[in-house]
Amino acid sequence: MEPDDSPRSSRNYRPVIMKRDVFEKSIRLQSPQPVSQSGKIYIKDNLLFVNDVNQGFHVYDYTNPSTPKPVAYIEIPGATDLAVRNNIIYINQATDLVTLAYANNAITLIKRNPKVFPQKQSPDDSYANPKANEIIINWIPK
Known about the structure:
Layout: E1 13-19, H1 20-23, E2 28-30, E3 38-44, E4 47-52, E5 56-61, E6 69-75, E7 79-85, E8 88-93, E9 96-103, E10 106-113, E11 134-141
Antiparallel strand pairs: 1-11, 2-6, 3-4, 4-5, 5-6, 7-8, 8-9, 9-10
């Protein structure tokens, strides 16, 4: 996952691109990690999910809201939002809608719906022309 320095990008940002085959295998459950750039927060029952923008979700035990305890980190490049119903998590992973089951601190990929969302746009309207098998998972300053 290296930034794309090709002439396909302009202005102040450059895209971070993944090949689709790598992208589709990029979801991993890890031990708790420090938060890099926090995004949206979601609470479901005794779980708190904190987005690490375009990187994944931190999972906390929220049984005691005054002292949330880190439980896990779901690495999912390109993700910025989620919804939860029962033990099913729906995540936008860049262009795809991913459905995961989360139980007993384990995740299982249930389904991937590719190309539900458009390619990520840069903060300053920089452009990129990724190939058909490439996904923009982030934009970083040049």
